[in-house]
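User: Here's a chain of 272 residues. Predict its fold as tokens.
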Amino acid sequence: MGWRDRGIQIKTPEQIAGMRVAGLVVGRTLEMLRDVARPGLSTGALDEAAETHIRQLGATPSFLGYHGFAGSICVSVNDQVVHGVPGARVLAEGDVVSIDCGAIVDGWHGDAATTIALGEVGDDVRALMRVTEEAMWRGIAAARIAGRVSDISFAVEQHVRAQGPYGILEDYTGHSIGTEMHQPPDVPNYGRAGRGPRLVPGLALAVEPMVTLGSPETDILEDDWTVVTSDGSWAAHSEHTFTLTDEGSWVLTALDGGKAALAVLGVPYGGD
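Assistant: Prediction complete.
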């Protein structure tokens, strides 16, 4: 069975370059939102700032209207894990805010997420945020040409498990990305290595661990989007879109292409 038969989209170097343009829009928008987010600002105002910024950069928000989603970004606060719908909620001192952003340029998608703290939060929450981001980078670092998708999954889970009794969401995963925001294959945040499709140049994947301070069990609010922890524990979400080249890994949504973080992990950089 070939790649095309599996529905897996392999991009040419020129197409990956197009995805890099979309990825930079996402990276720059998240950088702007990290600076803008503050206590007293509504999640709806944050969404408006994101949409304006994305469009000013010549892109279209991926999320707006996606299966009826009402925002240009997802804003998930405290016990909200992912898919938070922006609106009237006002951010407060001590909130932990996960922002997920997507953009389209010339038909190509970029997708990334970050979690930020507004002011002082507990050491346990700071550790949660750190572990979640580290797990994402460990997953990306585990990817090698001719390896398997679940090598990423295994690396994410192993890092989280080694840091403490955190919950890892299993019902929500990373994914391939290209001319659509969500494509096969999925990239779970747990599992054994050596399984799933092979990793090849031109396969673009969004790696996104979602980690909680308690149980991994979740519920969905009445808006039919916002995912919250069942036990009320706080959560963090970290995501980047990356691909493999013959030279190494290239993180398409990181402003530096992932060069600095990959170097710390001993991974060759494969960007331009």
